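ERR on first pass: missing label on line 2. Operator R.T. fixed the label and resubmitted. Corrected input:
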Amino acid sequence: MSTTANATQSCPDIAGLENHFAAWGLPTTEKRLLKRLSSNMEEVRSFYDAMLPRLPEFIEYLNQFPLDAIPKEAHQLAWATLAMCEVDNAINKWNDITLDTGIDILRMIPKKNFPDRGQQ
Amino acid sequence: MGKAENLALPEIGSHALGTGKLPVEQYVSQEFFELEKEHIFRKSWLLAGRESDIKAPGDYQNFMVDAVGVSVVITRGKDQKLRAFYNACTHRGSRLVNAPTGNVRALVCNFHGWGFNLEGELINVPDAGLFADLDPKQEHLKPIHVDVWGGFIFINLAEKPEWTLREYLKPLDDKFDRYLGNKDWSWSFGWRAKFKANWKLIVDAQIEGYHVDMTHRKTIAGAIPGSSTAAYYFPESIGVPCGVAAYRPEDVSRGMQTPMNLLSAKYGATSIYTKPEREFVAEGGEGVLKEDHPLWIFDNYLVFPNIVLFVQKGQILIQRTIPLSADECIWEVDFYHTERPANFGHAFNMEQGVIQIRDVLSEDLYTAEGIHANFKCGAITHVSLNKQEVPLRAYYNRLLSAIDQSQAKEKP
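pass 2 clean. output:
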């Protein structure tokens, strides 16, 4: 893979992004969704604007590791990068924290596998 | 094939099944629901699971047909054969398994300890001498018909199903069986939710493309224009009455392609709303995938009564809608992929795809409860359908014929 051919790229300089990483670098999609739902647009926009120009560099950096071998110190970076997917529509399509033309998103319970029906 | 010819889309729909309004009793009538239970849920082939989830001898899945209160235990025997039984001990009727899945050496009842092997034979009765005239051969677990197609397990509660599964699923043929049954597919993600709505309303929302531009105006409008979806119906089919095909617009810049969509499209193909720069690997799609059309994204098929199966390259989406009563249902979707993310870029693409489809589905699900209430209170007694909504007519016709034909056969 082209990105792994270059020897190890060093960890990107994240100066100035520490607060965003602390706020949004959450380990699951569900936690990142709850973070969006409990934020205001100003917070979401500030995160989005700070991260967007850096994303290609972050992805290239993270891409050099096998997915299950991303170093622990880069986990928050990875999770904050994934959190950008969670705020994309709020910023670019809704100009709002929630989608007002869909069901309450928390009604959709993530499944663990095909037979999963939760607690009966 | 010339380029212009190549880009032609199939006909958007048809008036061939009629143009009149349809009544709505079948969504809200308790009597109709009773007929559905008897003539549809006890007689149709029902999608119950994925064969790869029941791999080893003793693996089981507990599948509920809630409408009729039947719990089915599907197991693989030591002979590798898949079998299904009522989840009911033949002694005094207790459930044999309660977990949704698991692995057992034998099916042992927790009440008094009767034990059944994976072939359903009674093999152990504690203190058997206490019974006056117990004949273990008469105490076999009650079997249920089970078959596999496209890697999916289907069950049929009828004592003698009227059709084989393959007859039932025509026009989906062996090419689909091979493509969907490819062992490379693995479950990736899914959701479930409960709705105060008739189960068929949630099916209806996925079998026409007329809704796309409006319902999805805040997510994907333009990326799959309503005018680029085509309706199919299969009047000769028993179990696959209709479906919808979706194509991208010729102008790929249509629809809101955010910087995030475009960035994620470099690393994978999970989101169906953005043209990916990479494609999924998918073996054996000849005759299934319309790859000769440069704009084709997916075909979906209604697998009667309650499944909408979306087929595309490297990705399958299955929507199941499970009635609990005439007025309440469980909705589930499950995604299968041929590739697991191996690096972060692919995982990033997957995350973007998961969230995009999640938000789109939340829009698809937005109308069912309001429609149901409007039907139930009598505000709406009939609905209008255009040619692009012809799959709903095909679904309705299939529903009525399933009930009428069954009733006719039962009359002396």
